[in-house]
Amino acid sequence: NFKMDPMTQKVIGISQQLPFWGKRDLKAEMAAKEAESYKWQIEERKLELRRMVAETYYQLYFTDRSKEILDKNIAILDIFITLAETKYAVGQGAQQDIFKAQVERSKMLDVGITLEQQRKSLQANLNALLYRPADTAVGRIPDFEIKPVALSVDELRAVALESRPLLKGLNSQIEKGRAGQKLAQKELYPDFNVSFEYMQRDKFEMSDGADMYSLGVTFNLPVQKQRRHAMVAESSSEITMATEELNSAKNSIDSGISDLLAQMERRKKLAELYRTGIIPQAEQSLESASIGYRVNKVDFLTLQDNRITLFNYERELYDSLADYQMKLAQLEALVGKSLWNRER
Q: At residue 263, what are phi and psi to the nearest 5 degrees?
């Protein structure tokens, strides 16, 4: 019963905690920097995904060309087997040459089965990376011309510092840590609590029952300084760790750029050497050996050696082309930006 006692009252009130000046802004800054960090992690993952797609694509390219070279060599070997059988029939060749060629042909068919299975696996991997059904057909990968990177080592480093999401994410973590350090220091200062109350009273014989209002300001006492000093130390450690990770990432990028450029230059020179020098010479050598075998000036083993040599050189050419493009994809992931159509 609210009317039993003149001191009885009905109270309703509101209160609001007000952090010390600057704390709210620092908390907002920490949240924003953390969101930035997550955003750059997503962008970094996209870079990795593009690299993986490119690497799988050019592995498919090399597998396709290896199968084409293999099929061409099987056709050449069939011609050699026919020649060996013809020479054996007229008493100018050894039956052992026929058996050796047939064994070699069977081995090449076995390699062809392996390449077909490898292509299916690569196709499934590529479709998975592109979020497509695993059985989506991937056609023959077209030929391409490799192009040298137009930027120097120093220019690529500058691109990485400007574009690499990993570095941006670490910078965001450092900035978040600095804001957290400032916030921890401000925790040494008290927060305020503002309250307002309305008290409704009923009238009594000895009291007019006037309503009452109350406005109050309170603040906490930050007496647990040890805990707050620990928060400052923790923020400092986070900044130190993120800074060391950032410096390590920069060093890794610097060394990675130099290493990839060196490997790409080597592959480029090898591809040019195979295309313009070694392979044409090997083709001439095989043609000469084929003519010599027909007129009994070259034995079957020499003919086979020339064919195998040409086969290996042609595979090395396409291996160099594919590896160059894969290294380019790795370089783009390293600097955080596509390097196509970039000029000095």
A: -65, -40
Q: In a 3-state reduction of DSSP, which class is residue 11?
A: strand
pTM across the whole model: 0.81
Answer whether residue 273 shows pLDDT above 90: yes
**d(Cα 231, Cα 179) in Å, to the nearest integer?**
12
Structure tokens that stand for 299 in this block: 């034995």
Helices 300-335 and 225-273, interaxial angle, to 10°? 150
Beta strands in the chain (DSSP E): 10-18, 192-200, 212-219
Query: Using 50, 70 and 90 to split pLDDT, how confident is the model at 5?
Result: low
Question: 293: left (phi > 0), else alpha (psi -120 to 50), else beta?
Answer: alpha
Element (H, E) at 229: helix 225-273
Nearest-angstrom CA–CA distance, 342 and 336: 14
Architecture in CATH of 10-335: Up-down Bundle (1.20)
